[in-house]
Amino acid sequence: MEILERDGALIVEDLADAGTLKALWDDLGPALDARDYSGDWYNGTRTRRVSSIFARTNRLTPVVTHPLFLGAARRIMQQPVHVWIGRSRTALVPTVQISGTQAIQIHHGQGKQPLHRDDALHLRRHPGPTSRVQLMLAMSDFTADNGGTLMIPGSHHWDDERPPRAEEAFPTEMRAGSGLIWLGGVYHGAAPTPRTPRVRA
Question: pTM to 2 decimals?
Answer without folding.
Answer: 0.91
